[in-house]
Amino acid sequence: MMRHVGWWFSGVIVLLVATIAMAVMVGTTWIGPHRLLQILSQPASRDFVTVFNLRLPRIISSLICGGSLAVAGALFQAVFRNPIADPSILGISSAADFFKLGGVLLVPWLPGRQWLLALLGGVVALFILTRGRALRDPYRLIIIGVALDATFVGLSRLVSSGQTAPVLPSTFNATTWMDTWTLLILGLLGLLGALLLAPWANHLKLADTALQTIGVPVKLIRWSLLLLGTYLAVSVTAIVGAIPFVGIVVPNLARRLVGHDYQTLLPFSMLAGAWLMLAADTLGRTVIVPSEISAATMMAVIGGPFVIILLQRGRGFHGITTG
Q1: Choosing a second label site near 59 at 20 to 30 A (CA), which of 131, 184, 195, 235?
Q2: What are the φ/ψ torsions at residue 82 (nearest 5 degrees)?
Q3: Where is coiled-coil annotated (predicted)?
C-alpha cells in the first residue's frame, strides 16, 4: 500500500512540475525554453516582464489557492462526515466575499480590511451553519449551506448593483506580487497548521461517544479544524474571490487514490489541489487567447458534473451514504 501511495505522490509531483513549466511558456506570447534562458540576462525586455511580473505571480498564487482550498474541503469533510461539505457550497466563501465587499465600501481606510472582513464573514457563516442540528444531520447541513450561499451571493449582488464596476468571476488575472506574497504567507501558515493537525482529523472517524470514552476533546478538535478550514478558504477569497468545488473534487479523488488516513490525504490533496487550480487557470487563459475564462468558471465546469456523479453513485463516507 505504501508503495502504491508513493507512486501517486510521484505522479502528482511530475504533473505539477510539467504544468508549471507549461504555464510559464504559454500565453498570448509563446516563450520557449531557449528564450527563457535568454531573458534572464535581459531584465528590461518585454518577455522578461511578461514572465516575471505577469505569469510567475499568477502561477504561484494559483498553486497556493488550489492547495488551500483542497485542504479546507478535506477538513470540513472530516468534521461534518460528509463528502460534499466544502466552504464554497456551504456559504463560507460567499459570506467572506460579501463582507469583503462591505469593507471596501464602509471602511476603505482600514489596513488589511479585505482579509479581516473576509475572515469575519467566514466566521459569521460558520456560526450560523453550526447552530442547531446541522452538525448531526448531513442533509440538513447541505440545505442550510446552500441557502446561506444563495443569501450571501444575493446580498453581494444587491450591494454591488449600484457600483460602476461590476463584480467579476474570481480570476488570477492582474495578480500582483503583493497579492502573491500575501497569499503565500497566509497560505503556508494555514497549510502547515493543517499538516500538524492531520492526526486530529483521523480521530473524527470514530463516533463522538467513543472519542469521549477515551478522553479525546471532541469539541476542541472539531472547532480547531473548522476554524482552520475557514481560515484557508477566506484567505483565498480575500485576495482572489470565491472559487467553487476544488475542496470537493480533490479530497474525494484523493481518498480513492491514497486512502483515508489524513496524514497522507492532506499533503496529497495539497499537491493535487495546487495542480488542478494551476491547470484550470492555465487552460482558461489560453483556450480563447487573447481573452480568458476565469478560474471560478473553469472550476464550476469541472466541479459541477463531478458532484452530480458523486451523489448519483451514492458513495459512503464515514458510514454516511450520499444517495
Answers
A1: 195
A2: -145, 125
A3: none
| Beta carbons within 8 Å of 136's beta carbon, 6+ residues apart | none
Residue 2 — very low, low, confident or very high, per pLDDT cuts 50/70/90? low
Question: Which residues lie across from 320 on neighbouring strands?
Answer: 317
Which grid coordinates are listed for 61? 498564487
Considering the entire predicted model, what is its pTM? Answer: 0.91
Rounded CA separation 255/50 (Å): 38
> Cell triple for residue 189?
501558515
Please state, in angstroms and rounded to a whole number, the distance separating the CA atoms of residues 198 and 268.
Answer: 12
Q: Considering only the top CATH level, what class is 49-160+168-321? A: mainly alpha
Give how far Cα 207 sits from Cα of 130, 152, 212, 213, Å: 18, 33, 9, 10
